[in-house]
Amino acid sequence: MGGILLLVIIVVVVLYGIGAYNGLISLKNQTLNAFKQIDVQLKRRHDLIPNLVNAARGAMDFEKQTLEAVIQARNQAVSAGAQASPTSVKRVAAAENQLSAALSRFNVVVEQYPQLKATANIGQLQEELASTENRIGFARQMYNDTATQYNTKQQQFPTSLFAGIAQASPAQLWEIEDQADRAVPQVDLSMKPKA
Amino acid sequence: MSGETTLNLFQQQEANRRRTVFLIIGFVLFFAWLGFGGDLIYYLSTAGAPPRAYHHVFPWFGLLLTGFGVGTAWYGYSTGPLKVLWATGAREVVTPQTDQERQLVNVVEEMAIAAAVPRPRIWIDPDPDPNAFATGVDPAHAHIAVTQGLLDILNRDELQGVVAHELGHVKNLDIRLMTTLAALVGAVVLMHDGTSRIMGRGIGFGGGGESGSRGGKKGGDLIILLLVVWIISWVLAPIITQCMAMAVSRGREYLADAMGAQFTRNPLALASALQKIDAAEGPTSSIKRGAAHLCIADPLGRQVNLHEGMLSNWLGTHPPMNARIIRLKGMGYAQLKQQGGTVA
Predict the structure, then answer these.
(1) How far apart are CA A10 and CA A7, in angstroms?
(2) pTM above threshold 0.90
(3) How many folded domains does chain A comprise?
């Protein structure tokens, strides 16, 4: 009788362990995948910026500084993103935040010159840029949600026993560092195509 | 901040999933009753017949009905989504031509990222009344359709809210459930219509068997009772199944609203979109009754959806718009409070 009880307990513990292990592995891969999604969207932004700058260059001679800041921030972000992984999130995030800030300054400038929007095809590029900013934001949101879930699972009691076996380590969240950058997502969201 | 919202959401999601499973079980049991119940009655009524008379042992009626039902439902399931889209006269947006289309495609792609689902196929329905719906069988084979009227009156944020709501339906597999239910309802209605004629003969059989067994068996009353209930079930089958489909649909609108808020983190935009959709006069004429339960707002503009209550619980496809807007605003204000009211 006692033997059977022991056997049952062992089986239950082993089954639970397998479940916990698989759950952790699944979340780990989801986190990795969510991180790659941000990467994809950042790349999209990096590719979009040269088009935007080229379209604006002719019409924006008087705002060279803004454009150069965008280009510089873009190049830095590209090099920072070359070795991105969930453990080096902070550095990449800082570079990308710089770029976001530069882009938002660019948008502010464009808003000051309504004729620019109409003449230089910039209106369309701005929609693309707004969409890209959103995509990055949503990819980041997805990553943070998944990473939080992953981190919580690692720390919660019974599962935490299996974190070592699953080689689970806490994933860094993608945070927005300073107050000025927090304003970025508000750029041009209300832009209507017909306006 | 998101932790709490997500937790509530998962609880709500879980509760909804459970309810759905119960409803589908109810559907299956109802189906089984319609088929095998008939066999049971026939079996009971022939059980006391003389040895050489016909004994109904093999449940051919139930098996036939099940086979036919599964076949019809499967056909409806596999062709349903495209049929719904064709019926509304929607056209697919493959490569966006205008700024409006480009924005729609962008918004859908953004929301697909937020929801972590593949980008669904995008359709525009030329109807001037604002409405939207999603259909398909799973996130990899999903369709999202919006009317021209919706594109015309909503701003980018509001459109995002509506698309997020629809992707909520996609993500939690509502679209599969709805397609399944539509197929089941279709199968029941078709069987009901098709067997109405045979029913007459069926009753004749049952009556004959029953009178034959009256002398020897005590179960006569039970058989009559079963028979009456069975016939009433058949008569009411289309209505009951439609009510079941609607009950599933209604609870899910709240959940999709909540998921939309989770994806955009902007419940107030969806609330204002719903307000605009609600304020728009007139029903969406291109969307027929069959697709009504898929839409973000009831396309038929029925009065029954205006109030919560017994009648609307059974007849409406959508919860009252005001209740949805109030819930979303509640979420929005809670969010503002947590962020210290910095966001306008």
Answers:
(1) 5
(2) no
(3) 1
